[in-house]
Amino acid sequence: MSRRIYMDHSATTPVRCEVLEAMKPYFDRVFGNASSVHSFGQEAHLALDDARGKIAMLIGAKPEEIIFTSGGTESDNLAIVGVANAYRQKKGAHIIICAIEHHAVLKTCRALEKQGFELTVVGVDGHGLVDPQELRDAIRPDTTLVSIMLANNEVGVIEPVAELAAVTHQAGALFHTDAVQAVGKIPVNVEDLGVDLLTISGHKFYGPKGVGALYRRTKTRLTPLMEGGHHENHLRPGTENVPGIVGMATALELACIEMPKEAERLARLRDRLQSGLQQRIEDVLVNGHPTQRLPHLVNISVIGAEGESLVMDLDGHGIAAATGSACTSDLLEPSHVLMAMGIPPEVAHGSLRFSLGRMNTEQDVDHVLEVLPGVVERLREMSPTYNKAHG
């Protein structure tokens, strides 16, 4: 196997060489603790301030509204648990999320239920969209927080967050959005969205793993998850990961500069892949919204073929894809996202996600279109239920 094609960019991305170069000085030459008062520490602190200002500017925020974390999961936890605990006595203990949230949100809220919080999960339609009216009906006087993702990690649907946030604020609650899959892929501006909290993860847009950020609108109160030092305005104790933070800021800056052209290029590749799959393979369903979706992602269900087997066979041909989110790819249960969209379990089991990136070309897409039909045919030949239904 000589050719290797990576089409799982929603799981993670390689660190860009420009990002790596920007990070290098902060591993050896500028290695100081950003909290130290001497010149070594102040150099690191300047880099931290510069990265904070850069990220804030790129999403329409103020520098003091950016909190650095270890990644998307921690940012989601800090937003949800932080708000829940800070407003429980004053406002209430009711939280609303939607049915297709990432497990970093779902499981965090389920854990809060065990602590006496009440959780309402609003549904989605067949395309994966939340109905603003359903959210309006779900909000109660004691609703503290609504958390609905900006873009879904499995099917790529982009939620009407600005409208959902407006509905939430009309009822006097706070709004958080997990924007991990959106930032760096589509324009994201916190003022345009009207959100109070927004989650970012560096490794989704060619930055390093292990670093993320939480946007917190001024005056939105949070209770820290951990106790310790004064770092990040007393909200996230621990010595800051200066190399990672510098890398994340550099990666986001590059992604935003290149976004208009790159999004258009990726959308062309995505459409080429999607139409090719539909033309070459029978009984293929496209999951998600036809237009209101991320430019780089296509999720299909292959009737009569199991998703894990498809991924394994493709990997044997040097092609990396996924059945759903990276965090659940080792599970055999059907995707909770597809199930929430009303897709039957036997169809959801055949889901396959391709998420394209900077390194992908038309030749890569065409190679996948050459390989996948044969993989599907072989798997269907071993499926007694498919052969019986189509015999």
What does this structure look like?
- With 391 residues, this protein is of the alpha/beta class.
- It has two domains: 139 residues, Aspartate Aminotransferase, domain 1; 238 residues, 3-Layer(aba) Sandwich (Aspartate Aminotransferase, domain 2), CATH 3.40.640.10.
- 42% of the residues lie in helices and 14% in strands.
- The radius of gyration is 22 Å and the shape is globular.
Extract low-pLDDT stretches.
325-329
CATH class of the largest domain: Alpha Beta
The counted number of beta strands is 12
In N-to-C order, the SSE pattern is EHHEHEHEHEHEHEEHHEEHEHHEHH
Arithmetic mean of pLDDT: 94
- How large is the share of residues in beta strands? 5-15%
Domain module tally: 2
CATH architecture of the largest domain: 3-Layer(aba) Sandwich
Fold-level CATH name of the largest domain: Aspartate Aminotransferase, domain 2
* Rg value: 22 Å
The CATH superfamily of the largest domain is identified as Type I PLP-dependent aspartate aminotransferase-like (Major domain)
Q: Can you tag this structure with a few keywords?
A:
single chain; 391 residues; Aspartate Aminotransferase, domain 1; Aspartate Aminotransferase, domain 2; 2 domains; seven-stranded mixed sheet; 12 strands
In short:
The chain is of the alpha/beta class and 391 residues long. It contains 14 helices and 12 strands.
Itemize the secondary structure elements and their pairings:
Blueprint: E1 5-6, H1 17-23, H2 39-59, E2 66-69, H3 72-87, E3 94-98, H4 103-113, E4 118-122, H5 132-138, E5 143-147, H6 161-170, E6 174-178, H7 190-193, E7 197-201, E8 212-216, H8 231-234, H9 242-280, E9 284-287, E10 297-302, H10 307-316, E11 319-320, H11 336-340, H12 345-348, E12 351-355, H13 362-381, H14 384-390
Parallel strand pairs: 1-11, 3-4, 3-5, 5-6, 6-7
Antiparallel strand pairs: 2-8, 7-8, 9-10, 10-12
Helix pairs in contact: 1-9, 2-9, 3-4, 5-6, 9-13, 10-13
